[in-house]
Every structure is written in C-alpha cells, then in structure tokens.
Backbone:
C-alpha cells in the first residue's frame, strides 16, 4: 500500500470531495479521506474547514484512524476552539479505556491541544493517569503535566500535580522516573527560585539507581538534572562521580557528554590531592576521544565542548594531540574546530608535529581553513617561544607560494610575532617587502605598514614604501589610514632629515582632508606634539610597547564556568550563555561552578594559562590604535584616573587601574626598592608587566573566596608561640611626605594578618583625617577595615596603629611578588610608598599536609617547578630550625636522617590555596643549609626562600 | 526540548512536519528552507540559529531532517535522536528516500508521536516499537489484555530491547568483529596517526531471556587473570586467523549497547548482558597500540617540468602469506589540469577517472607478504594558476580476514536458567573482517 498518492491531489473542489468521503459509511473510505487531509495539512494547505467532519471520525475503535484524527486535532484545535469541545467526551472516555495504549494516547494528545476549555476537562483524567497501574500510562502522564504547565501554570499548581509529579521520582519504573525528572526540570526552569526539584541525598540516590536501568534518553534527563545538584561535601561528590563514571562507556554520545558535564562540575568539589581526583582525570580522556569517531554532526558538538574542557582542564587531553589532526575528508566545520583545539593543546613537547600538520593544511583548498591554519602558525609562535623560529621560517615558506590570501594572512601574524619578540626576526622584512603590491586586504596592509614604520631605521627605502601607500590615502580603510599616519610619524622621528615633507603631507591629509574624527584627532595630537616638544613626541611615539601574550581568544573565565555547567547543550555549541539566545525566563539562570573552599583551586595546574585572570583581562593584540593607547598612558599623571579603561592596550589598562597614579614617579628617584612597574609610558613598563608568566594570574583568581573562610576557620587555633616578627622599618621617610614618617611591620596573629605602623608627625602642624588604600597586589591583600586613628597627631607626636588585613582584595601580580604599594592620605596630602611583606604572613595555620598527600604531591609536581637554594651561616640544629619555622606556619611533616644529614620535609599553604612543599637539608656542623622548594606556582619559591632565611637567622 | 521536526526533500519541500511546542511557528519551516537548504554558500555548521530559533540538521542521501527549538536543549541528544530516527525509519521501510517517506507518511507520524513526546525522546528501540506500531495497521484492537500489558511493560521496562517468550528450535548466534583501520602516513613512511575503530556486531537467535557473557583478549582482563594464577588456554578459543601471536591487546576506550551492564564493566571489566533479538551492535572500541597495518603504500611523485608528472606507487601486503586480502583499491589523486594519463601496473586494473581527478587501481585479491607496483605518467595542461597543486594523499581501500587490532573473541557464554538448553547447545559463529577506514599516505 502506498500513501504517496495522497500528496498528489491538487484538483479543484477537493475540499468538497473530501467532505463527502469523510462522511462516508465505509470505514476504509473514511480512513483514506483522513489520510488525504493529513497529507494536505503537511504540505501547508489549509484544511481547517473540514474540522467537524474529521472530528466525527474520532469515535472509532480503529486505532490507526484515531491517531490520524488526533494528529489533525492537535493542529487545528486552536483555530476552532469551540468545535474542539466536541472532542472532549471522546478523550475522557478514552482515558478510561481498557487498553493502556489507548489511555496513554488520549492523555498524550489531550495535553497537546492548547485550548483553555479543553484543559479544564483534562485535569481529572490526568490525575487518574498519573496513578495508573500501567507504567506506560504513568510515564506519558508525567510529560503531560509539563504540557499542561506550559498552557496554564496556575492550574497545575492549584490541582496539586506538582506534588504527584514529585512522588513519581520514587516510582518503581525507571522510565517513569526519567520522564518525571524531565518534566520537573522543565517546570523548575520557569520558576528559578522555587524549590521544585528539591534535590537531597535521598532523591539523588533514587535518581542514580534509575540511571542504571532506564533508556538512553532517560539517562540523559537524569544526568542533566544531576548536574544541577550541589553536593554537601567532597565525599558525597566523589560517591556520585563513582556512580556516574560507568556512563562514559555508553554508546550514546549524549549520555557520555552529560556524564562528562556532571563529572566536570563535581570534580571542582574534590580536593586536588585526592588519589581519586587523578583517576577521574584519566578516565575522562578516552571517552572524549571516542566522541570524535561519531557522525560528523556529533563530532562538531563534541569538539565545541572539548574546546571548553581544554580551557578549563588542559591536563585531561594534553597527550591526545594526534586525534585532533584534520582528516582530508572531514566536513569543514569539523576541520575548523579541530584546528582551534590543536592550538590550545600546542606545547613545547608536541610543537614539531603540530607545525608539520599546520603547514600541510595551509595548502588545502578551503580558503577559510587555510587562513585559519596560517594564523594558527603565528599563534604557535607566540605561545611556544622555542618554536618561534621554526614558525617564522614556515611562514616564509608559505609566503613563497605566492597564494594571495596566504601571503596576507602570514604578514598579519608576522606582525604579531614582531610584537612578541622584538628585534629578533627583522631579517625577514626584506622578503615581506617584496609582496607589498599584492596586499589588498586592509588588515594585511595595516600590518605591513606597521612593520615598515616600526623598523623604519633598518629599511633603506622606508620613505618610498610609505609614500607609495600615501598616494591612495583616501581610498584606504580607516585601519590602514591610522596605521599609515603613525608609521610616517615614526619614520620622521627616526629619520627627520629626509622625511619632513612626507610627514607634513600625511598630517594635512589626516587633519584637513579627512572627516573621520579618530583620524583627525590622532593627526592633531601628533602635530602638536611634534611642533611643541619633539623630544616628548619621540618618547611617546617610539615608546616601547607592552608585549603581547598568546591567550587572546580564551573565553572569559566566568563565562567559561557557566558554559562548563551547560556541557552538551546548545549554549556549549554557541559558546554563549543561554540568555543570549533563549527568549523569556527559561534557562536564563546563570550557573556557576562551586569549588571547595580553600582546596587550592589554583594549584591544580600552572598551565591553565592566564585563563583565570579575573580582574585584568589578558592582553589583546592591539591590531589598531595601539599607539593611541601609548599616548593615553602619558595622560595618566593625575592620580584621578579611575574611569574604566578600555581593554585594548595592556599598558594603558595597567596605568588606569593603578590608583597610585603618577605619584610613584617622585618616589622612583632615590628609593632603592624596585617598584613593580613604572607608570606613564616609560620604557621599563613593558618589561615589567608585558609578559606575566602564564601561571601566576591563574593562581590568584579562584581561591579569593577561600581566603576569608580560612581566616575564620583558624581563629580558634590558638596563638603559635615564637612567631618571628620582623622589626619595624621606615617605609615613608618624613622628608618625602611633608613631615609624616611611617614605619611599620607585618604580623600574623591567630590567623589574622595585621599591618602594624608607627605614624610619626615631624611637621609643624597637626595631622588628621587619615585614610589608607592599597594598590592591587599579588595576593589580594587589602585593609579589612578603615585605618583607626581617632585623634589627630600633634607635631612631634607618634601614634601606633594596627590595620587588620584581608586577602580578598583585587589581585595583580607584583614584582617582587611580595611587594605592596600603599597610599596614605591625611589632611595635608596623599602619599605613596611601597613595602614588602614577609610571605609567611600568608601561611595558613592548617598548612600541615598529610604525609601520604605530601608524598603524592611531591611526585606529582613536575621537576621543572623545583628550585634549590642555599642558606648560609645558619647555626641551628634541625629540631631548633623546625620549631622556629613552625612559628611561622611552616610545618615539618617528617624527618629523616641519612648519613648524618637531617632531611626535614615541610609544607606550607598560602592564603590563596597554593601549597609549597619543602625539603630542608641540615648537616651537623655545616652552617650551610640546602633547601629545595616545590610548588605548582614556582614563582613563589624565591619569596619563600627569602622568608626561610629571615626566619632562621633571627 | 525539541520544538518541532521537519523532513524536506532536496528541493526544500516539506514531506513531514510535526510541531511539538507552541513557540515554533509555521514560518520556522520556511526559515530553514530559505537559510539552509537554499543557501548560496555551502553549509558551515550543522547547527544554525535563525532569529533566535535553532535548527539542527542531518542529511541522508538528498533528504533533510531538521529538528527545531527555541530553548537551550541538549545538542548531543538532538543529533543522537535524529540518527535514531533515521535508524527506526530504515528498519521500518528501508532506504530513506523521498518516495519511501511519502509512501509511509502515516507511519512516520505515528512513530513520531510515539518516540518523541512534547520534544522528549522516548523509547526508540525498533524491537519494542515493532510490537505495537506496524505497517499493516495497529494490532491494538485484537490483542488480549495480557498482550497489551506485555507491550507496555516492554516499552517502559528495564529490558526494553527484548520481548519475553522468544522461542527458537535451534539456538544460534553469530559474532562479527568488524574493524576499520585508519592510517595517516608521511611520504617517508612514518606513521603520523593510526587507530582501529572496531565494532562487535551480534546476531542472536536465542530462546527465552538468555544471560550472556562476552570475553575477549582485553589486556586488563588477561593481566588480572595472570596475576590471579588462573591459566586459561587462550589458544584454544582462538577462532580468528590474525597474523600476530599477541596474547592480549590494549583497548583505549569502548562503548556498549544499552543492554550491557555498564556498572559491572566499570567495576569488574566483565561484559554481561541480555541481548536483543536479531542483529545489533554489542560494542564499539578503539585501539591505537600495536596495530597491524595490512598494507604499506610507498609513493614517489616527480614533477618533470611544468607539464608532466611521474608517479610510482608500490604497495606491500603485511600479513600471513596464507591469508588473502580482497577488494583492494588504490586511489592516486591527479591535478585538476591533467590532460592525459598513461598507466602501467603489474597486477589488477588501473584507470584514470577524469571526473574524480584520480587514477583508480583495483586488485581483486592479494596474498600476504607480496608487493605490487603501478607507474603512471601524467600530462598536464599549462595553466596560469599560481596556486600549487595541493597533492591530496593517496588513499586505499581493502578488506582482510583478520582483526588488525589483534582482538580475539575468547568466549561468549550463554545461560538461560528457565529453559532447558545450555551453553554447549548454542551454535556459535565468529568472523573477523578488517576493512580500511581512512587509510592515507601523503605524497
């Protein structure tokens, strides 16, 4: 029997004929007619006129016919609400049918008819069906509650269906449980604050049991629901993880991805030093790789998700580079995604392979793919320093192919490489210049002009080259115009004699003949600078630029966390939060990862990249307007620059957030302490801040919340005897602060960090209205309260002040790490100084590691993170040293004596959760100690070592 | 959840349209046609967002299946569902074509009603579906009450993939180990990447509710047993004819049909299950270590001036001489501006196929440890095109009667406590087939 004939009836008077057939006495004819109606409906014809006739066919014991009529009803009931009532009786009757299939069919269809009058009649049958003896009917009824809620939420609540639905979570049939979970999850989404899905350990246990027994789809519903639960402690989250991991072997990729989501989320709760944590990490890699052998559409979904996963936990897939190599026959969307992941996973260990592949891809056919491959080579160069040279030579090879878009793309990335490694690869400029004419894309032209301007002194015919661009100045895009203006000014500053005419030409083009305000403004600034103070102009325009970092396209950390909670869903495919593409309230709640307090989130891996720089977004390669940034730096001198800085140029942003502003300048002159960075476009700045080691920012972000908890947790720990308190030193000499002298020190007492200061008024007038503020610093130290100086200080009076500190302030890496920049205000002026705190202030009282954990962690931290120092002239025996160090919260975990040498194994924990492990070797009679430090954030080692030295020697 | 499901023919005409949610309007049908099917550019993503509505699509021959939603749905689930939907349709009426879909549209609506409720996928195992949705009309009215409740308990039950009361006079099962071996080799013969993705497909004709246990030479299991002191004779159950004497293999990862008890696999690494009736895929696996690469391709391409290429390709078979590989095909890509090709080969037939831009060399059979060679002269038209020829890799197809991963079936035990047949009464067949997946050598 073929049904295709129903699609072909297009003659006139068709509706009339159908009407007659529908009212025929013969069952077969009736059925045929209804089929024709459905076929017409499918192709978009309006057959609503037949409503009464079709509904008349409903009263039948032929199930196939019934289903067809129901299908029609679902489509047209809304347009004919009055007539739809005619169907109600049949529905109600069917809900009582002996055959469970018919009962379910009736309740399922009724829920799809969105007519208020009908929904009223639906309640009673639905109530019965929810308690039906047959699980097939119950599972259908469960979904029907969600349907009804969509039509009339109030009705569902009033009728108490939500409670019945909750009861179904304890149903004996796993499929009923799964559907109830799905329905409840959906209803809960539109009531963000309700406690509908009251997930507690008992219900979780029920869900986990049903998980083993229900269909693949049911498993997805349950896993997606589980992901919303927050376990009470790490033990609970471990036990859930253990019961979810078997799902990773399911043939259905969606089950696997949902399981990955649950694991990724609950993993945050697990202490990183737990053995199970490592096991879990290892278990995640194979199933993710297996997803790549699924059908291409699923591969695409998987790759978009893997992209998120490698940003959050790069260690999972770091050895799996090869599986992301592009296959010749992959669909283009799979190829592009694989390329992205390859760059994320590129490291020194695999860079050779990656480059060989990328070079291969650069010869493919698809233009987008080729461009991305070329760009990827540049990104590798910036990411893996050791490979830079190879990358550059690969790019040069590609330029030799003379394929237009390849050349242009290569030039754009070479510009970035120059930015990252100045004065290293200039020898290639000659080759680049050969291709000047073939560049027709603005980005490539701008890049080339930038290169010519930046290295004008080494290019003999730089003026000719730039002049050639100037001819068509007005036809260029803004990007190119701006770049050309800057480049010519640079050229002029470098070779003033021959290029005066050229610079005048470009300045007049930019200021007089252009109606682009950006271009005009920049032109005027240059003009005035050049005419008033050429030396200053030189300092501004030729200032050293801050270095760029590779992590330009990382997803912002809070968004990343939210997306991790949405693994497998559309949000993870779009890399956007659901609120960006879902209308209304549904699914718009923001989800966050919950990490365990103080578990040392940051410790997990130094190469999470600067992914977690929360306050300071990673440096963006400034494609245009970098000079604008440089210029603005100069204007930062007034300390009132509090406006939000544009994130484009790192140098500028740094300046703006520095509350100390230009005040530091005065300090620089004779203060011996090196300050983290200079402000205001001086050359030192780039070096100081441009390239923070990738690990540091990561370490400072997450645990901030933990810091405060720790403070309270440890309050009861009792005071440790013999804490070493460094003597007060003068931080701010009186002559620099109009008579105010501040000396001070740092103390840690019962887990509270205090800054103890003596303020000495050496001026002739009374000082009052004191306030204090800190600049951002490495460990987020900030005043926990205002500076309590209640009485004014009269001349020659000194006063003691203690300022409690918290570690929840904004974080920025300082150089040296323990540097703190402080601003003190009084009725006279604002003063700035910087001081260094002993890092032991940040050692927590619970810094004693379990022996087993210590061993495992020691092994786990790679050897390159180990640093060794000598402590000379120390005359303590090992026990005395151990006691002394304990006073500063450096705990000895074990002691071993080998051949007369005492080995002390020690641990300490910083307020931001970083653990530092130490091995101190003391030889009797030898005043020189050897200390080895291991830490996941090796930057702190130097500080810790200094601290050892001061504590042991005092 | 899924808001609607549409099926289109290649022209973009709707064949099936089922809307589950109110937020999906009739215009969604047209939006997809205009923006995806009739789009000027090739589709860049299987997920498309048009006016805050997301479309997921898959294509089967020239038929488009699209799922539509306005919510943040589980994307992986939607695609899995679309594939499943294709499987179900294929199981019911064969190939997915415009004609078949039009011929079965009532059936498809009925299936859609059953397997997708309010956008939530429901039980979609064809075994279960076929008990109450049939092409001859629904059995519904003539069933006894017992039969009806049996259907519903199967559809919702823990063993949704098998019905009770199956009886065979002869209990028999067939196991096929089907592997596809993938290779990417550099011109110098260095393995850039290689992996085997394998499937164990089972056809079971067993009575009752048999409990099965499947064993293979999984390294983890064998090592465990070795330590435990039990020495099992693996040689005896060696049913395959692989060319390596490897005792066990390291499996990178495997996934199982939903009948397999995953928690048991996770804890004991044992594979136990009650199989569906008939044919199904028991497991999939992937290995990357110690793969037997059945063929080695040695390419030599020489550019003689701008208008001529000389290509020489040698293939070597690398397995036991007693075994025969079949359906060997080597595909040597040629540049787009090829004007003529002369081929000489020692064995098989070789032809230049202009429409495919390749020389296709076919050999029917080839024994192990042999080698064969082809040489070709390719004449090129002079072009102005600056862009160099990309030199796509040389690809190969073949079929060999062993498992390139080295996997061996050690046992498949059947227990059925209620019926009176034992493991020994079951007739078991095992077959190994290794095929080429993407088997490429760059040149």
Residues:
């Amino acid at each position: 029997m073929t049904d295709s004939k129903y699609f072909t009836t297009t003659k006139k008077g068709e509706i009339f004929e159908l009407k007659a057939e529908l009212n025929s006495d013969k069952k077969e004819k009736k059925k045929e007619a209804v089929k024709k109606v459905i076929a017409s409906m499918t192709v978009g014809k309006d057959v609503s006129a037949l409503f009464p006739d079709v509904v008349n066919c409903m009263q039948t014991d032929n199930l196939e016919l019934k289903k067809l009529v129901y299908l029609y009803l679902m489509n047209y009931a809304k347009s004919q609400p009055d007539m739809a009532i005619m169907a109600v009786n049949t529905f109600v009757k069917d809900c009582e049918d002996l055959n469970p299939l018919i009962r379910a069919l009736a309740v399922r269809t009724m829920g799809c008819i969105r007519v208020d009058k009908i929904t009223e009649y639906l309640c009673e049958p639905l109530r019965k069906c929810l308690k039906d003896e047959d699980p097939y009917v119950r599972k259908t009824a469960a979904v029907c509650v969600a349907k009804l809620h969509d039509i009339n939420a109030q009705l569902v609540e009033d009728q108490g269906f939500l409670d019945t639905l909750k009861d179904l979570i304890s149903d004996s049939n796993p499929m009923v449980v799964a559907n109830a979970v799905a329905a409840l999850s959906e209803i809960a989404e539109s009531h963000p604050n309700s406690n509908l899905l009251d997930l507690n350990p008992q219900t979780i246990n029920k869900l986990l049991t049903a998980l083993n027994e229900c269909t693949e789809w049911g498993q997805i519903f349950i896993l997606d629901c589980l992901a919303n639960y927050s376990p009470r402690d790490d033990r609970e989250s471990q036990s859930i993880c253990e019961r979810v991991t078997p799902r990773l072997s399911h043939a259905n990729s969606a089950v696997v991805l949902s399981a990955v989501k649950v694991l990724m989320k609950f993993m945050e709760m697990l202490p990183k030093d737990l053995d199970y944590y490592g096991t879990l990490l290892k278990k995640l890699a194979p199933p993710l790789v297996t997803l790549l052998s699924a059908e291409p559409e699923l591969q695409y979904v998987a790759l978009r998700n893997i992209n998120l996963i490698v940003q959050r936990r790069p260690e999972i897939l770091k050895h799996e580079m090869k599986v992301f190599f592009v296959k010749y026959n992959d669909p283009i969307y799979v190829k592009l995604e694989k390329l992205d992941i390859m760059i994320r996973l590129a490291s020194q260990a695999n860079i050779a392979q990656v480059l060989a592949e990328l070079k291969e891809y650069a010869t493919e056919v698809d233009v987008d793919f080729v461009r991305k491959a070329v760009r990827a080579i540049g990104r590798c160069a910036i990411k893996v320093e050791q490979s830079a040279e190879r990358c550059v030579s690969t790019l040069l090879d590609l330029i030799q192919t003379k394929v237009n878009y390849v050349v242009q793309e290569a030039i754009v990335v070479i510009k970035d490489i120059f930015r990252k490694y100045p004065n290293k690869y200039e020898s290639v400029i000659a080759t680049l210049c050969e291709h000047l004419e073939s560049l027709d894309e603005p980005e490539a032209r701008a890049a080339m002009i930038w290169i010519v301007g930046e290295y004008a002194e080494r290019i003999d015919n730089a003026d000719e080259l730039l002049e050639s661009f100037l001819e068509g100045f007005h036809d260029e895009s803004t990007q190119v115009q701006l770049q050309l203006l800057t480049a010519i000014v640079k050229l002029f500053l470098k070779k003033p004699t021959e290029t005066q005419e050229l610079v005048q030409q470009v300045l007049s083009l930019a200021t007089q003949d252009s109606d682009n305000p950006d271009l005009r403004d920049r032109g005027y600034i240059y003009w005035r600078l050049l005419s008033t103070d050429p030396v200053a102009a030189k300092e501004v325009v030729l200032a050293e630029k801050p270095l760029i970092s590779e992590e330009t396209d990382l997803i912002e950390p809070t968004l990343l966390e939210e997306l991790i909670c949405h693994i497998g869903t559309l949000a993870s495919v779009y890399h956007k939060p659901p609120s960006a593409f879902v209308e209304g309230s549904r699914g718009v709640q923001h989800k966050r990862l919950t990490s365990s307090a103080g578990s040392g989130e940051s410790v997990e891996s130094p190469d999470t990249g600067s992914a977690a720089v929360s306050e300071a977004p990673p440096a963006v390669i400034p494609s245009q307007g970098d000079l604008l940034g440089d210029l603005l730096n100069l204007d930062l001198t007034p300390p009132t620059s509090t406006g939000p800085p544009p994130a484009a140029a790192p140098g500028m942003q740094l300046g703006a957030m520095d509350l100390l502003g230009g005040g530091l300048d005065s300090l620089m002159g004779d203060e011996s302490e090196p300050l983290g960075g200079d402000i205001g476009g001086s050359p030192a700045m780039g070096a100081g801040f441009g390239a923070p080691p990738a690990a540091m920012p990561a370490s400072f972000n997450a645990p901030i919340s933990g810091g405060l908890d720790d403070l309270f947790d440890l309050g009861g720990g009792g005071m440790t005897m013999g804490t070493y308190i460094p003597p007060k030193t003068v931080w701010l000499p009186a002559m620099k602060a109009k008579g105010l002298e501040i000396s001070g020190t740092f103390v840690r007492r019962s887990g509270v960090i205090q800054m103890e200061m003596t303020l000495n008024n050496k001026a002739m007038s009374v000082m009052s209205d004191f306030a204090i503020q800190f600049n951002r610093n490495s460990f987020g130290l900030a005043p926990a309260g205002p500076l309590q100086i209640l009485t004014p200080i009269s001349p020659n009076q000194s006063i003691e002040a203690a300022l409690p500190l918290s570690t929840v302030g904004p974080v920025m890496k300082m150089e040296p790490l323990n540097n703190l920049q402080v601003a003190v205000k009084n009725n006279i002026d604002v003063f700035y100084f910087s001081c260094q705190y002993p890092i032991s202030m940040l050692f927590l009282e619970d810094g004693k590691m379990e022996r087993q954990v210590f061993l495992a962690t020691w092994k786990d931290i790679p050897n390159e993170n180990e640093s060794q120092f000598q402590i000379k002239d120390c005359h303590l025996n090992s026990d005395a040293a151990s006691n002394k160090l304990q006073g500063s919260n450096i705990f000895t975990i074990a002691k071993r004596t080998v051949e007369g040498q005492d080995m002390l194994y020690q641990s300490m924990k910083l307020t931001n959760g970083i653990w530092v492990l130490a091995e101190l070797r003391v030889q009797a009679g030898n005043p020189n100690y050897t200390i080895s430090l291991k830490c996941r954030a090796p930057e702190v080692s130097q500080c810790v070592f200094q601290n050892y030295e001061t504590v042991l020697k005092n | 959840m899924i808001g609607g499901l549409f099926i289109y023919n290649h022209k973009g005409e709707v064949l099936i349209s089922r809307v589950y949610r109110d937020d999906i309007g009739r215009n969604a049908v047209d939006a997809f046609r205009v923006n995806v099917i009739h789009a000027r550019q090739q589709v860049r993503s299987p997920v498309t967002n048009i006016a805050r509505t997301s479309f997921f699509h898959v294509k089967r021959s020239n038929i488009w299946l699209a799922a539509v939603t306005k919510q943040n749905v589980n994307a992986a689930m939607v695609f899995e569902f679309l594939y499943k939907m294709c499987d179900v349709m294929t199981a019911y009426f064969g190939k997915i074509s415009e004609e078949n879909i039009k011929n079965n549209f009532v059936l498809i609506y009925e299936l859609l009603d059953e397997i997708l409720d309010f956008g939530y996928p429901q039980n979609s195992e064809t075994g279960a579906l076929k008990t109450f949705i049939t092409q001859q009309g629904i059995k519904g009215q003539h069933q006894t009450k017992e039969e009806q409740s049996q259907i519903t308990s199967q559809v919702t039950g823990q063993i949704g993939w098998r019905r009770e009361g199956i009886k065979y006079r002869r209990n028999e099962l067939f196991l096929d180990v089907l592997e596809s071996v993938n290779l990417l080799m550099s011109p110098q013969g260095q393995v850039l990447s290689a992996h085997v993705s394998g499937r164990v497909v089972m056809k079971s004709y067993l009575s009752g509710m048999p409990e099965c246990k499947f064993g293979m030479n999984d390294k983890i299991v064998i090592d465990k047993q070795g330590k435990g002191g039990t020495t099992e004779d693996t040689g005896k159950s060696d049913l395959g004819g692989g060319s390596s004497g490897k005792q066990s293999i390291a499996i990178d990862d495997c996934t199982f049909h939903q009948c397999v008890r995953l928690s048991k696999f996770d804890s004991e690494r044992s594979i136990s299950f009650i199989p569906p009736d008939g044919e199904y895929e028991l497991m999939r696996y992937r290995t990357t270590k110690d793969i037997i690469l059945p063929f080695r391709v040695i390419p030599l391409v020489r550019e003689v001036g701008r208008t001529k290429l000389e290509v020489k390709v040698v293939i070597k078979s690398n397995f036991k001489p007693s075994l025969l590989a079949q359906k060997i095909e080597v595909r040597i890509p040629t540049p787009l501006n090829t004007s003529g090709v002369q081929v000489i080969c020692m064995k098989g037939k070789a032809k230049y196929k202009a429409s495919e831009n390749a020389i296709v060399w076919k050999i029917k059979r080839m024994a192990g440890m042999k080698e064969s060679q082809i040489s070709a002269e390719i004449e090129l038209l002079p072009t102005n095109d600056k862009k160099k020829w990309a030199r796509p890799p040389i690809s190969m197809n073949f079929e060999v009667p062993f498992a390139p991963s080295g996997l061996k079936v050690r046992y498949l035990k059947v227990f059925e406590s209620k019926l009176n047949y034992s493991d020994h009464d079951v007739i078991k067949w095992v077959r190994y087939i290794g095929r080429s997946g993407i088997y490429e050598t760059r040149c």
User: Anything to note?
Assistant: Chain A has a mean pLDDT of 80. Chain A touches chain B through 111 residues (CB under 8 Å).
